[in-house]
């Protein structure tokens, strides 16, 4: 970090971020600094660091770099896109009601839904079984896979494997409250089939318009919420024939709404970013 920069601590349903305005400042980050800031006892505390910068192409409004709390880079963050758009509006970096964010996982569109309360619609890319950005070591291009988890789990799980610009493995469970998410998450994230690891979601189907979700996020661990994880869960539920095209996803930190109309269509996340505090990084 060579100059001072404004940041906001923000969250969506408890999925929290350190959002930095780097549109007019040259910033450098390293794993050690990110891990220090992300510490919830001695630092700012966050799941992801989000860095908003100037676009590299005229068709985009901003670039967005995403870092997990362990310092690793991430390709995509649905809730984070809503948070950075809210920051850009607050700092008057844009007055538009729509923006296009150039992220490592592809271009994401954000649209202002309302100001009071602040609600933002995030248009994620159409889902695919797996991509070069979110690899899965299988020649099977279906979404549903049976994955054997070696000792100590020594069992197979059925998982919907998909990419939204970042990798996801969605597993249906009878009760999200009693499932050992940490053990399942570690087993899947370290599995040889996922060379870049994966985000793991466990989904409990309520009815055709309600789902209950817990998330074990890559580079973070269990989180209170995850926007792209909620989108992946709705895609999985729709592919399984369990959901309508608009679903309320309930996570430990709160609820978001997700809409997906089917193959080749984008997935739209509706969420409510909230500001916690504002600060300055220097030196």
Summarize the structure.
The chain is α+β, with helices and mostly antiparallel strands and 283 residues long. Helix content is 15%, strand content 42%. It has an 18-stranded mixed β-sheet that branches.
Features:
single chain; 283 residues; alpha+beta; 18 strands; globular
Characterization of the model:
The model has no long low-confidence stretch (mean pLDDT 94). Helix content is 15%, strand content 42%. It is globular, with a radius of gyration of 18 Å. The chain is α+β, with helices and mostly antiparallel strands and 283 residues long. The protein is built from 4 helices and 18 strands. Strand 10 and strand 11 form a beta hairpin. It has an 18-stranded mixed β-sheet that branches. The longest helix has 13 residues.
What share of the residues lie within helices?
10-25%
Main sheet attributes: strand count, strand direction, barrel closure: 18 strands, mixed
Q: What integer is the average pLDDT?
A: 94
Instruction: Give me the Rg, rounded.
Output: 18 Å
Number of strands: 18
Order of helices and strands: EEHEEEHEEEEEEHEEEHEEEE
Count of helix runs: 4
| Strand proportion | 35-45%
Q: What is the 3D form?
A: globular
Structural class: alpha+beta
Note poorly predicted spans.
Answer: none
Alpha-carbon distance between the termini? 6 Å
């Amino acid at each position: 970090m060579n100059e001072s920069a404004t940041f906001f601590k923000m969250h969506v349903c408890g999925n929290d971020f350190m959002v930095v305005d780097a549109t007019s400042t040259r910033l450098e980050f390293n794993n050690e600094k990110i891990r220090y800031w992300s510490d919830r006892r001695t630092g700012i505390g966050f799941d992801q660091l989000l860095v908003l910068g100037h676009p590299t192409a005229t068709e985009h409004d901003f670039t967005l770099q995403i870092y997990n709390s362990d310092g690793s880079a991430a390709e995509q963050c649905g809730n984070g896109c809503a948070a950075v758009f809210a920051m850009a509006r607050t700092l008057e970096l844009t007055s538009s009601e729509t923006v296009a964010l150039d992220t490592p996982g592809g271009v994401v569109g954000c649209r202002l839904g309302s100001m009071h309360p602040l609600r933002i619609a995030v248009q994620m890319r159409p889902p695919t079984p797996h991509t070069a950005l979110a690899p899965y070591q299988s020649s099977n291009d279906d979404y549903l896979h049976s994955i054997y988890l070696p000792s100590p789990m020594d069992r197979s799980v059925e998982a919907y494997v998909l990419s939204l610009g970042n990798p996801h493995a969605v597993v249906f469970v009878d009760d999200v409250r009693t499932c050992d998410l940490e053990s399942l998450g570690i087993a899947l994230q370290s599995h040889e089939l996922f060379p870049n690891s994966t985000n793991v979601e466990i989904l409990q189907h309520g009815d055709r318009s309600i789902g209950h979700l817990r998330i074990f996020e890559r580079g973070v661990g269990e989180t209170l919420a995850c926007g792209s994880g909620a989108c992946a869960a709705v895609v999985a539920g729709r592919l399984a024939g369990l959901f309508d095209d608009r679903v309320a996803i309930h996570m430990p930190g709160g609820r978001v709404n997700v809409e997906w109309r089917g193959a080749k269509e984008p997935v739209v996340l509706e969420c409510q970013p909230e500001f916690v505090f504002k600060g300055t990084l220097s030196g």
